[in-house]
Model the fold of this input.
Amino acid sequence: MSMDFEPTSEMEAADIIRQAAGTGMPLAITGGGTRPGLGNRVRAEQLLSARKLSGIVSYNPAEMTMSARAGTPMAEIETALAGNRQMLAFEPMDHRGVMGTSGQPTIGGVFAANVSGPRRITAGAARDHLLGIRFINGAGEAIKSGGRVMKNVTGLDLVKLLCGSHGTLGLLTEVTFKVLPLPRAAATIVAFGLDDAQAAAAMAHALAMPVEVSGAAHLTESVRYRFIGSSHPEGAATVLRLEGLPASVAVRAEKLKAAFAHVAPATVLDQEATEKLWRDIRDVKPYADGTQKPLWRVSVAPTAGHQLVAALRLQTGVDAFYDWQGGLVWLRMEADAEAEMLRRFIKGIGGGHATLVRASDAVRGVTPAFEPDAPGVAALSARIKEKFDPKGIFNPGKMG
Amino acid sequence: MPETIAFLEPKPSVLARRDAIIEDLADILPAGCLISEKRGLVPFETDAFIAYRQVPLAVVLPETTAQVAAVLKYCSRYGIPVVPRGAGTSLSGGAIPQSDAVVIGLSKMTGILDIDFANRTATVQAGVTNINISEAVSADGFFYAPDPSSQLACTIGGNIGMNSGGAHCLKYGVTTNNLLGVKMVLFDGTVIELGGKALDAPGYDLLGLVCGSEGQLGIVTEATVRLLAKPEGTRPVLFGFMSSEEAGTCVAEVIGSGIIPVAIEFMDKPAIGICEAFAQAGYPMDVEALLIVEVEGSDAEMETMLASIIEIARRHGVATIRESQSATEAALIWKGRKSAFGATGRIADYICMDGTVPLSQLSYVLKKTSEIIDGYGLRVANVFHAGDGNMHPLILYNINDPEDAARAEAAGNDILRLCVDAGGCLTGEHGVGIEKRDLMLHQFNQADLNQQMAARAAFDPLWIMNPSKVFPLEGRPAA
Done:
């Protein structure tokens, strides 16, 4: 086994890639290596890590943008932002818990995997916050796209294309992204005892109110005590987050609580409890269980999530909870991954997609991690891949 | 008429077959969907970038996705260029045809197909106007957020083509942030669907690539967009300043303080005069610069935010503060702002720039802009989205005076280079079109553009889709 490539400059990275392209040597692209479970097994022995392309390049709090080299640890970014009471509004998940990995997640990894958390429903996904990139394509050329301003439609948006491409189109070397002020106050309204269908209706109702709900999750009875203690009423917990100016959060919390008073017993969590709760939801705490039980991340229309889970429950052992108003379903299978059945049922409820986030090597070896594209789209994606990585050296096999 | 921006040379093989092509298109489409007479074609010769005109070979107005697919299948077989068109409101010439092109207009595809309040989505055909979406859901307490000034006319298909913005993007983002899915037709007639009602989609983010691709990757025929709950209340407030610099630094400080209003719009003295004369919105006439700052939420919330903003404005020497006292006044304030381009068009011809700059550069770029304009002996009115640094200098000129027009174009190019050099970009929301095409190498190097063109070729290997736009004519791959 050869040494890992850990270039310390963009030019060095480009040289490595140019040579690899010349010899057709496949490269496993990685950052902090904390999310290896995302995607299929990569058919490459040689690792190319962005880990040492590290450091914040520029940070201008008043302009709400930051540029950082791709291997910059998330901890460094978050510390710098917190010092100015700012944040990454898309709340990227930390996969270490569910995947049982260690090490430092990097900002490049977050964008390469388009990792987004609970605030996705209002603030957008990682891809909505990425303003500009530098990357090395499969020919070893350094390419830039986007910039450092909030609005930019100059040319094709390769920024979006690279975001979520899991290192299969290029090696990100630098990312420029939007940051936002930390909310000065936050609270969570919890309604207890709703079943999944009732919760879906309640969340839809809350999101239709002019109260700016910034998080809407339903914690089913089986997981709820991992999030909210037994000092509260029993049963499943439907949780709605409000953020903003203190006086405003208080007023909106009262409004929202009143709206649910006739539906279920409800309570309000304070800022500290709110911050912990949503961090736990973001990181899928109940399934950070040290097991290899198959874990799926399913994305569907918000009102369809509970229908999917109901159909699955009749067929197999499954545990689930919901984020994104019900549209993001975390599913832990008790035994088999049941990929075929799951994907068939998703089609049956109007479409969406399932990503296998964790499973044993044996299961991962026979289960496509990502939802296969429809034929026309698959052909297009294959042509895109060919245009960015003509020799097929970046993460071969990872996306299918 | 200036002649500095070239179009691709028309293909002789296409021009020679004109009559046959028109006959074939007539066979493909139902009656009433084909325009081939000169008189009928003239209205399609330009868009809102009126300095350039080209009469197309034919215009088709299909009624279904299948008809769009049939036309594209036919055009790709013969290598006939295709120019997609929504309402023709492009300010960058994105919809200006070329003499060997078939224009595919989406104006007959105006159906609202599905409104789903529980999932907060609307699925509409591409020819639906931007305002129609919000109007269709307004009574139920929802709206569609991106709001270009041309929203009464512009279509969602065109909005997707240009990744359009608007005054309220500061809080809600531009089209790409509010688009969940499309049905689109590729160059060869293949119909694909990207995304849907879920908040993300598998595989590469092709939807993100398509949005803002200026009709070069295919023709969107249907779109699924996000709806948002309307805020409890909104309140625009006018802040008058005795200098543009003060207004500019005030904007930067408001944003930097952590308050994000829904909109911060800027007008300089010429723009104030033009808009006030048109809309009688009650704008203060004795100031050099005006900010329209809009906040939203409950009354208490708006009071709190406004108090902070007013405090910042006072520190920057604000001369006038005027809060709207009623919904009618608020509507007038916005009417004045949103009619700025139309009102300017009544007093002079103009070209509208669209560069975006970092907020810290706003004052500097405003100052340099007026120096550039003075240098050319022209006049300018500035009216733009200050909160996100998206400038819109309107350069006034006389379209019938070729020298004046050439000066305006040169001044515009200087201003856009200035924006890029200040750390910004050529276009924030209007698109590259033909207008800024030849400036692309000021922002990107050839390798950057080659990668974009490679992505483009993955969608349209024949380069028949809106081919004269976006990429400089030199440096393109051999067809």
In short: The CA atoms of residues 218 and 238 of chain A lie 4 Å apart. Residues 185-282 of chain A form a domain with the Alpha-Beta Plaits fold (CATH 3.30.70.2190).
